[in-house]
Design brief:
Length: 455
């Protein structure tokens, strides 16, 4: 009989060994085997690097477009790089939630070193017991569901960060477009100032103009050169700022290329408001509400008692017999039925619903204010483009022609040139403001304004 006991012990040991060497988890409808924690793992062989869907990163060069800037920023922006690790964190949490409770093995010796018949080992009883906790109430599946829904939140957090990054990139890109426009305008002004200086110089040498006019013209040339140099410094700084969006310290590109003109027709505020739900800051709350509901179901399932079942063998020294042992343990949910955690889960759901409403109200308010500002700037751009700029351009052209023909004085040319420059600068500044507001609105609705239809 003792040999039978040894055989049973050996069978238990083999069973426990194999159950510990490999565990399985059921995720998304398939069984995935995981290595046992007792196995040695070569950590040097673990790689967490992923192939980017955009391909290998290449530094943008030459003349670049907004699409190329977006691609480079999404691929290599420092802020977005950490999100793949956050996704891995959620995957690890899902993995941990999928594991079954560990079995237990118990070895017990009793009825020895006592008194009387139990003073020695003759009446000793030896028990080997294997037990397993069985989760009821679908706890495991509900736990996995609640944790998996956290991965959706990680996705929306990434989307919110992506929109924020692209909005920031678009603002810098627009700033560079504006500075390039200012630089071209400054170069034109410098060329005109030098042209006027050369014309006055000829007049002075011919005795038809005062040397004082030549000095004034020279001052204007120097001032235009200083303005051009300042714009060039600002442009260089903006390029460095843009290159930092894809992790580069020095820009390799020469200039940016894009459409700097406003939309011909603005979408209505109603059409924009209907797209607020596509804003990641709002959509994430919808996903979190779903996750909170799953958490409530999981907390509710904890009110169902789990069952612990054990079976094993017992050897009786006194008769040298072997007997089977079976036990079952069920906690009685008399006092603790997880009421507090269930109530907390319900409260957290209500908090999340209020946060969603708060986000929707905040974004609606910002959208309404930004839209009114956009309409105002849009009207200003139309007035500048159709009314002011053509008038001051004609006035300057006529004055410049008259100056070349010797019909007007230099001061009149200078005044017309400044008026024309101020009008062009005002138009460029309004364009910059228009695009800055447009980028803000696009971030609120989660898509470009050009793709929004009033229907």
């Amino acid at each position: 009989m003792y040999n039978k006991f040894l055989i049973l012990i050996g069978a238990f040991s083999v069973t426990i060994f194999f159950s510990g060497c490999m565990t399985s988890r059921w995720i998304n409808g398939s069984i995935i085997n995981e290595p046992s924690p007792h196995q040695s793992i070569n950590h040097a062989s673990l790689s967490f690097e992923e192939e980017s869907p955009l391909g290998e990163f290449k530094e943008p060069t030459g003349e670049i477009t907004l699409a190329e800037v977006f691609a480079a920023s999404l691929l290599n922006h420092p802020k977005l790089a950490r999100y793949k690790w956050q996704v891995r964190v959620r995957e690890a949490q899902t993995l941990q939630a999928s594991f079954l409770p560990n079995p237990e093995i118990e070895f017990e010796v009793e009825e020895f070193f006592g008194s009387g018949a139990s003073s020695g080992f003759d009446s000793m009883e030896t028990t080997l017991l294997y037990s397993q906790l069985i989760e009821l109430g679908q706890k495991r599946q509900k736990r996995i569901t609640a944790v998996q829904l956290n991965q959706d939140l990680a996705t929306w957090d990434y989307e919110a960060a992506r929109v924020s990054v692209l909005a920031g990139v678009a603002r810098v890109f627009t700033e560079i477009l504006s500075l390039q426009g200012h630089r071209e305008m400054m170069q034109e002004n410098l060329d005109l100032a030098e042209e006027i200086y050369a014309a006055i110089d000829k007049r002075v040498k011919a005795g038809a103009a005062s040397p004082l006019d030549l000095t004034k013209a020279e001052v204007e040339v120097v001032k235009e050169k200083m303005k051009l140099q300042r714009i060039q410094r600002e442009l260089k700084s903006a390029k460095i700022h843009l290159a930092s969006k894809w992790g580069s310290r020095q820009p390799q590109f020469d200039r940016v290329k894009g459409n700097f003109l406003p939309l011909l027709i603005l979408p209505s505020i109603e059409a924009l408001s209907r797209r607020i739900s596509e804003n990641p800051q709002v959509a994430r709350w919808t996903a979190e509400i779903t996750q909170r509901k799953a958490q409530i179901e999981y907390e509710d399932s904890k009110a169902v008692s789990d069952v612990e079942i054990g079976f094993g063998v017992r050897h009786l020294n006194e008769s040298n017999d072997v007997a089977a042992v079976f036990n079952i343990s069920i906690p009685l949910t008399v006092f603790d039925r997880n009421q507090g955690n269930v109530r907390q889960a319900y409260y957290e759901l209500e908090v999340t619903r209020h946060l969603k409403r708060e986000a929707e109200l905040r974004i609606n308010t910002v959208l309404s204010k930004s839209y009114q500002n956009l309409r105002s700037v849009f009207a200003e751009l139309q007035a500048l483009d159709t009314e002011l700029l053509p008038v001051v351009k004609r006035a300057y052209d006529h004055t410049h022609t008259a100056f070349v023909e010797g019909k007007v004085e230099y001061l009149q040319v200078l005044d017309a040139q400044r008026t024309f420059f101020e009008a062009r600068s005002q138009y460029l500044e309004a364009l910059v403001l228009y695009h800055a507001i447009a980028v803000e609105i696009e971030g609120l609705i989660g898509q470009p304004l050009s793709k929004v239809s009033n229907n």
